[in-house]
Amino acid sequence: MGQEFMAAARIASGYHGRVSRAQLLAAGVDPDRIKRWIRDGRLRPVHKGVYAVGHTAPSVLARYAGAVLASGDGARLSHFADAHVLRLLKGPPPRPEVSVPTTAHRRRPGIIIRRVREIPAQDTGTLHGIPILSVARTLLDLAARLTAQQLTRACHEAWHRHGTSPDDIERCIARNPHKKGISKLRRALGADDVLSPLETGFLRLMCEYALPPPRTNIDVAGDKVDCHWPEHDLTVELHSYRFHATRQAFENDIARRRRSGHLPFSYGDVFDRGPQTAGEIASRLGLG
């Protein structure tokens, strides 16, 4: 294997076995040599101007890396594809979806292109070698397209997996104030004084297990609480991470409220561990 092809393979190794014509030319590879490599199968076209090097097994990351390379300068994996790589949403890998500055726009079969006027540097990053949009920007981009429950879960995963705080998201909103879904995203974070998706999910859980519904968002002994059963003197508080700077602060607050006699429940308690949570409520209400 020649040194030039080894150099091409090294470039491709950073992009999951994908390399662009522009990268090869920048590395000093002659255009005629690129044509010979294509003819002899060492380069296999996957998009116009993007090649798979050798015969590496295809992967989701390779497909996404190739899509970004094919979409031009400044392109970033975004929206549902980015959320999949960031593990904000569950499910099978979606089609490659890429955001590109307007000046770099090009059409590519099999790739969803999202044209944007600009992409602030603070909204960008790299994951597994692939240029992506940040966690906060991805949540903002998807806010209008997800259900309230999906968005709440994505916010939970953003904090749990990446440490993305509500302040990070608010700064992203300030950079992109005209995006759709801002109010919906704030509700998912628990920032609006209305029933949040977490509270709605808790009430739905009570109904599913035929438990008596609580009074919600009322004052009890001078404190505003999320859920209260006056006849049982039982108070439940539902916690997103909205008002906690760190995960440790969140966990400390949960522990403190348990000691105070309130029952605190998190997103995971409601949506991931619903049967156990319903069982605990039933026991406290004398129904278990």
Q: Report the mean per-residue pLDDT as an integer.
A: 84
The first-to-last residue Cα distance is 71 Å
Number of strand segments:
12
Number of domains: 2
Low-confidence stretches: none
How many strands, which pairing sense, and closed or not: the largest β-sheet? Answer: 4 strands, mixed
Estimate the global geometry from the Cα principal axes: elongated
Strand line-up across the major sheet: 9-10-11-12
Rounded Rg: 24 Å
Beta-strand content: 15-25%
Overall structural class, as computed from helix and strand content, comes to: alpha+beta
Give the fraction of residues assigned to helices. Answer: 40-55%
Description:
It is a single chain. This protein has 288 residues and is an alpha+beta fold. It has 2 domains: 3-135, no CATH class; 197-284, Endonuclease, Chain A. It is 44% helix and 19% strand. It has 13 helices and 12 strands. The protein has helices at residues 3-13, 21-26, 31-39, 60-70, 79-85, 135-142, 148-162, 166-175, 182-189, 197-208, 247-259, 267-272, 274-284; strands at residues 18-20, 43-47, 50-53, 76-77, 97-101, 112-116, 124-127, 130-133, 215-220, 223-229, 234-239, 263-266. The chain has a 4-stranded mixed sheet with strand order 9-10-11-12, sandwiched between helices. A 3-stranded antiparallel sheet has the order 1-3-2, with helices on both faces. Helix 5 crosses helix 6 (135-142), helix 6 packs antiparallel against helix 7 and helix 7 (148-162) packs across helix 9 (182-189). The model has no long low-confidence stretch (mean pLDDT 84).
